[in-house]
UniProtKB/TrEMBL annotation:
Its cofactor is a divalent metal cation. GO terms for molecular function: hydrolase activity; metal ion binding. It comes from [Enterobacter] lignolyticus. Keywords: Hydrolase, Metal-binding. PANTHER family: VACUOLAR SORTING PROTEIN VPS29. It comes from the Bacteria. Residues 1-161 form the Calcineurin-like phosphoesterase domain. This is Phosphoesterase. Its EC number is 3.1.4.-.
Length: 183
């Protein structure tokens, strides 16, 4: 199964359009949106091309192929614009070999892990910093932010292709981080 991950869109229309273009090219079955979809939040500057209603319209074109979780900047009002459910604080995706625990990262995250089994993958956003690594018995994966990158990293997204998790730069798709998850 191939999945694409995008986090921390924060209402940025150019980033959304780029994500959807890459999603169409990727061959991924689903686009996993890890929260902070429409609003920029009070701690962030407005991202370039801030247009939350238009972002909702664009994402809605792929509603049947989006799996989403709620971020700390998302609200129930946002759900009124979106045609895919995004109010769950976490979701789980089961692959033949492990569980992907999807969350935004503000409740569950590296410092507050949910119960995970050996080989499971914690998939989160929130920090806007890319991560793809094994820590102890579990894998940590953060695709970074498509709109407001931090830590000196470029805007980025993620891919799961077979047993490889990658964080890729949004503009040129160069690999920023990757880890092979055990089959």
């Amino acid at each position: 199964m191939k999945l694409m991950f995008a986090s921390d869109i924060h209402g940025a229309l150019p980033a959304t359009e780029r994500v959807l273009s890459l999603f169409a090219e990727s061959g991924a079955r689903y686009l996993v949106v890890l929260g902070d979809v429409l609003n920029h939040g009070p701690r962030n500057a407005l991202p370039p091309g801030y247009a939350p209603a238009e972002v909702a319209e664009r994402l809605n074109t792929q509603a049947a192929r989006i799996i989403a979780v709620r971020g700390n900047c998302d609200s129930e009002v946002d759900q009124m614009l979106l045609k895919f459910p995004m109010t769950a604080l976490w979701q789980q995706v089961l692959t033949p070999n492990q569980r992907l625990f999807l969350t935004h990262g503000h409740l569950f995250g590296p410092d507050n892990l949910p119960p995970l089994a050996t080989g499971d993958v914690l998939v989160y956003g929130h920090t806007h910093i890319p991560v793809a690594e094994k820590r102890g018995d579990i894998f940590h994966f953060n695709p970074g932010s498509v709109s407001i990158p931090k830590g000196g990293f470029p805007a980025s997204f993620g891919l799961l292709d077979g047993n490889k998790l990658q964080v890729l730069a949004l503009n040129d798709q160069r690999v920023i981080a990757e880890v092979a998850i055990n089959p």
